Amino acid sequence: MSGIEGKVVAITGASSGIGEATALLLAERGAKIVLGARRPERLEALAARIEEAGGEAVWARTDVTRREDLFGLVNLARDRYGKLDVLVSNAGIGLISRLDDLRVEDWEEMIDVNLKGVLYGIAAALPVFREQGFGHFVNTVSTAGLRIVPLQSVYAGTKNAVRTISEGLRQEAGDSLRVTVVSPGAVRTDFAERMDPAVKDQIDKMMEIALPPDAVARAIAFAVEQPDGVDVGDIVVRPTAQG
Length: 243
Prior knowledge:
This protein has 7 helices and 7 strands; from the N terminus they run E-H-E-H-E-H-E-H-E-H-E-H-H-E. By secondary structure, it is an alpha/beta fold. The relative contact order is 0.15.
Protein backbone atom coordinates (compact mmCIF):
# COMPACT_ATOMS: atom_id res chain seq x y z
CA MET A 1 0.00 0.00 0.00
CA SER A 2 1.50 3.32 -1.08
CA GLY A 3 1.54 6.46 1.02
CA ILE A 4 -0.92 7.94 -1.46
CA GLU A 5 -3.63 5.29 -1.49
CA GLY A 6 -6.82 6.46 0.19
CA LYS A 7 -5.76 10.08 0.54
CA VAL A 8 -8.16 12.81 -0.51
CA VAL A 9 -6.39 15.37 -2.67
CA ALA A 10 -7.89 18.64 -3.92
CA ILE A 11 -6.11 20.28 -6.87
CA THR A 12 -6.65 23.77 -8.28
CA GLY A 13 -5.74 24.49 -11.88
CA ALA A 14 -6.63 20.85 -12.51
CA SER A 15 -8.05 21.15 -16.02
CA SER A 16 -4.70 21.06 -17.87
CA GLY A 17 -0.93 20.94 -17.57
CA ILE A 18 0.63 20.15 -14.20
CA GLY A 19 -2.72 19.99 -12.41
CA GLU A 20 -4.19 17.50 -14.85
CA ALA A 21 -1.04 15.34 -14.81
CA THR A 22 -0.99 15.37 -11.00
CA ALA A 23 -4.64 14.36 -10.81
CA LEU A 24 -4.09 11.43 -13.16
CA LEU A 25 -0.97 10.19 -11.39
CA LEU A 26 -2.33 10.45 -7.86
CA ALA A 27 -5.61 8.81 -8.90
CA GLU A 28 -3.65 5.97 -10.48
CA ARG A 29 -1.86 5.51 -7.14
CA GLY A 30 -5.10 5.29 -5.22
CA ALA A 31 -5.94 8.84 -4.16
CA LYS A 32 -9.45 10.25 -4.28
CA ILE A 33 -9.24 13.42 -6.37
CA VAL A 34 -11.21 16.65 -5.99
CA LEU A 35 -10.73 18.70 -9.15
CA GLY A 36 -10.99 22.48 -9.31
CA ALA A 37 -10.52 24.84 -12.26
CA ARG A 38 -12.41 27.42 -14.30
CA ARG A 39 -13.27 25.15 -17.25
CA PRO A 40 -16.05 22.77 -16.19
CA GLU A 41 -16.09 20.86 -19.47
CA ARG A 42 -12.42 19.95 -19.00
CA LEU A 43 -13.00 18.95 -15.38
CA GLU A 44 -15.94 16.75 -16.27
CA ALA A 45 -13.92 15.00 -18.97
CA LEU A 46 -10.95 14.51 -16.63
CA ALA A 47 -13.13 13.09 -13.87
CA ALA A 48 -14.66 10.66 -16.36
CA ARG A 49 -11.19 9.63 -17.52
CA ILE A 50 -10.11 8.94 -13.95
CA GLU A 51 -13.24 6.93 -13.21
CA GLU A 52 -12.92 4.91 -16.41
CA ALA A 53 -9.43 3.91 -15.26
CA GLY A 54 -10.85 2.70 -11.94
CA GLY A 55 -10.15 5.81 -9.85
CA GLU A 56 -12.38 8.21 -7.93
CA ALA A 57 -12.86 11.89 -8.72
CA VAL A 58 -15.32 14.72 -8.20
CA TRP A 59 -15.09 18.25 -9.49
CA ALA A 60 -16.31 21.79 -8.97
CA ARG A 61 -15.82 24.87 -11.10
CA THR A 62 -13.26 26.84 -9.12
CA ASP A 63 -12.01 30.35 -9.74
CA VAL A 64 -9.22 30.84 -7.20
CA THR A 65 -9.77 34.61 -7.25
CA ARG A 66 -13.09 33.93 -5.51
CA ARG A 67 -12.60 33.00 -1.88
CA GLU A 68 -15.96 31.25 -1.74
CA ASP A 69 -14.91 28.90 -4.55
CA LEU A 70 -11.97 27.61 -2.51
CA PHE A 71 -14.22 27.03 0.49
CA GLY A 72 -16.59 25.20 -1.84
CA LEU A 73 -13.81 22.94 -3.12
CA VAL A 74 -12.66 22.05 0.40
CA ASN A 75 -16.24 21.44 1.51
CA LEU A 76 -16.82 19.20 -1.52
CA ALA A 77 -13.90 17.03 -0.40
CA ARG A 78 -15.27 16.74 3.13
CA ASP A 79 -18.87 16.18 2.05
CA ARG A 80 -17.94 13.48 -0.45
CA TYR A 81 -15.04 11.77 1.28
CA GLY A 82 -15.18 12.89 4.91
CA LYS A 83 -11.77 14.56 4.99
CA LEU A 84 -9.11 16.42 3.05
CA ASP A 85 -5.53 15.18 3.21
CA VAL A 86 -3.82 17.42 0.65
CA LEU A 87 -4.51 20.74 -1.04
CA VAL A 88 -2.42 21.27 -4.18
CA SER A 89 -2.57 24.99 -4.99
CA ASN A 90 -1.48 24.80 -8.59
CA ALA A 91 -3.60 27.39 -10.42
CA GLY A 92 -1.41 30.12 -11.87
CA ILE A 93 -0.90 32.50 -14.78
CA GLY A 94 2.20 34.11 -16.25
CA LEU A 95 1.32 37.30 -18.11
CA ILE A 96 4.94 38.35 -18.44
CA SER A 97 6.00 41.64 -20.01
CA ARG A 98 8.39 44.54 -19.59
CA LEU A 99 7.57 46.80 -16.67
CA ASP A 100 7.76 49.73 -19.10
CA ASP A 101 4.69 48.33 -20.85
CA LEU A 102 2.67 49.22 -17.74
CA ARG A 103 0.31 46.27 -18.11
CA VAL A 104 -1.11 46.99 -14.69
CA GLU A 105 -4.23 44.88 -15.23
CA ASP A 106 -1.99 41.88 -15.96
CA TRP A 107 -0.01 42.55 -12.77
CA GLU A 108 -3.22 42.65 -10.77
CA GLU A 109 -4.47 39.42 -12.34
CA MET A 110 -1.24 37.61 -11.48
CA ILE A 111 -1.48 38.86 -7.90
CA ASP A 112 -5.11 37.73 -7.70
CA VAL A 113 -4.49 34.25 -9.13
CA ASN A 114 -0.93 33.37 -8.14
CA LEU A 115 -0.84 34.94 -4.68
CA LYS A 116 -4.33 35.60 -3.39
CA GLY A 117 -5.54 32.30 -4.83
CA VAL A 118 -3.03 30.44 -2.66
CA LEU A 119 -3.98 32.51 0.39
CA TYR A 120 -7.66 31.75 -0.16
CA GLY A 121 -6.77 28.05 -0.31
CA ILE A 122 -4.91 28.34 2.99
CA ALA A 123 -7.88 30.16 4.53
CA ALA A 124 -10.23 27.39 3.40
CA ALA A 125 -8.10 24.36 4.27
CA LEU A 126 -6.14 25.38 7.37
CA PRO A 127 -9.09 25.26 9.82
CA VAL A 128 -10.04 21.85 8.39
CA PHE A 129 -6.49 20.54 8.77
CA ARG A 130 -6.36 21.84 12.34
CA GLU A 131 -9.66 20.16 13.19
CA GLN A 132 -8.55 16.88 11.64
CA GLY A 133 -5.07 16.99 13.15
CA PHE A 134 -3.43 16.35 9.78
CA GLY A 135 -3.09 17.94 6.35
CA HIS A 136 -0.62 18.85 3.65
CA PHE A 137 -0.30 22.03 1.58
CA VAL A 138 1.50 21.68 -1.75
CA ASN A 139 2.08 25.04 -3.47
CA THR A 140 3.32 25.31 -7.04
CA VAL A 141 5.73 28.21 -7.50
CA SER A 142 8.45 28.56 -10.17
CA THR A 143 12.17 28.62 -10.89
CA ALA A 144 11.41 32.16 -12.13
CA GLY A 145 11.63 33.13 -8.48
CA LEU A 146 15.07 31.55 -8.10
CA ARG A 147 16.70 33.27 -11.07
CA ILE A 148 15.24 36.70 -11.76
CA VAL A 149 15.31 37.76 -15.42
CA PRO A 150 13.79 40.59 -17.46
CA LEU A 151 10.07 40.41 -18.31
CA GLN A 152 9.26 38.20 -15.32
CA SER A 153 9.51 40.70 -12.46
CA VAL A 154 5.88 40.66 -11.34
CA TYR A 155 5.34 36.99 -12.12
CA ALA A 156 8.46 36.04 -10.14
CA GLY A 157 7.36 38.41 -7.37
CA THR A 158 4.04 36.61 -6.95
CA LYS A 159 5.76 33.24 -6.89
CA ASN A 160 8.35 34.37 -4.36
CA ALA A 161 5.59 35.80 -2.19
CA VAL A 162 4.02 32.33 -2.13
CA ARG A 163 7.42 30.84 -1.33
CA THR A 164 7.78 33.19 1.65
CA ILE A 165 4.23 32.60 2.89
CA SER A 166 4.73 28.85 2.58
CA GLU A 167 7.84 28.95 4.75
CA GLY A 168 6.02 31.00 7.36
CA LEU A 169 3.13 28.55 7.24
CA ARG A 170 5.54 25.63 7.66
CA GLN A 171 7.02 27.19 10.77
CA GLU A 172 3.57 27.87 12.23
CA ALA A 173 2.16 24.50 11.23
CA GLY A 174 3.50 22.46 14.14
CA ASP A 175 4.20 18.75 13.96
CA SER A 176 0.90 17.62 12.46
CA LEU A 177 0.76 19.58 9.19
CA ARG A 178 3.08 19.55 6.19
CA VAL A 179 3.97 22.24 3.65
CA THR A 180 5.72 21.62 0.33
CA VAL A 181 6.80 24.14 -2.31
CA VAL A 182 7.41 22.80 -5.82
CA SER A 183 9.36 25.00 -8.25
CA PRO A 184 9.01 23.83 -11.85
CA GLY A 185 11.26 25.14 -14.59
CA ALA A 186 10.16 25.07 -18.22
CA VAL A 187 7.16 22.76 -18.60
CA ARG A 188 5.12 22.03 -21.72
CA THR A 189 1.80 23.69 -20.88
CA ASP A 190 -0.43 26.45 -22.32
CA PHE A 191 1.40 28.94 -20.06
CA ALA A 192 2.20 31.35 -22.93
CA GLU A 193 -1.19 31.50 -24.62
CA ARG A 194 -2.17 34.96 -23.33
CA MET A 195 1.22 36.64 -23.61
CA ASP A 196 2.24 39.40 -25.97
CA PRO A 197 3.19 37.74 -29.32
CA ALA A 198 6.83 38.87 -29.12
CA VAL A 199 7.19 37.49 -25.60
CA LYS A 200 5.29 34.34 -26.55
CA ASP A 201 7.87 33.63 -29.25
CA GLN A 202 10.62 33.61 -26.61
CA ILE A 203 8.66 31.28 -24.36
CA ASP A 204 7.81 28.99 -27.26
CA LYS A 205 11.52 28.55 -27.94
CA MET A 206 11.99 27.38 -24.35
CA MET A 207 9.38 24.69 -24.99
CA GLU A 208 11.96 22.88 -27.12
CA ILE A 209 13.70 21.81 -23.89
CA ALA A 210 10.66 21.79 -21.61
CA LEU A 211 9.61 18.95 -19.33
CA PRO A 212 6.33 17.08 -19.73
CA PRO A 213 3.86 17.98 -16.95
CA ASP A 214 4.01 14.47 -15.50
CA ALA A 215 7.63 15.12 -14.44
CA VAL A 216 6.33 17.71 -11.99
CA ALA A 217 3.44 15.43 -11.03
CA ARG A 218 5.94 12.77 -9.97
CA ALA A 219 7.70 15.30 -7.74
CA ILE A 220 4.39 16.21 -6.10
CA ALA A 221 3.60 12.52 -5.63
CA PHE A 222 6.97 12.02 -3.93
CA ALA A 223 6.14 14.69 -1.36
CA VAL A 224 2.61 13.39 -0.80
CA GLU A 225 3.62 9.76 -0.32
CA GLN A 226 6.05 10.40 2.53
CA PRO A 227 5.10 8.92 5.90
CA ASP A 228 3.73 11.01 8.75
CA GLY A 229 6.40 13.15 10.32
CA VAL A 230 8.35 13.59 7.07
CA ASP A 231 7.97 17.02 5.47
CA VAL A 232 9.52 17.51 2.02
CA GLY A 233 9.79 21.27 2.08
CA ASP A 234 11.21 22.40 -1.26
CA ILE A 235 11.51 20.64 -4.63
CA VAL A 236 13.01 22.13 -7.81
CA VAL A 237 12.18 20.32 -11.05
CA ARG A 238 13.65 21.66 -14.30
CA PRO A 239 15.13 20.39 -17.57
CA THR A 240 18.81 19.54 -17.44
CA ALA A 241 19.26 21.92 -20.38
CA GLN A 242 17.72 24.90 -18.57
CA GLY A 243 20.19 27.52 -17.40
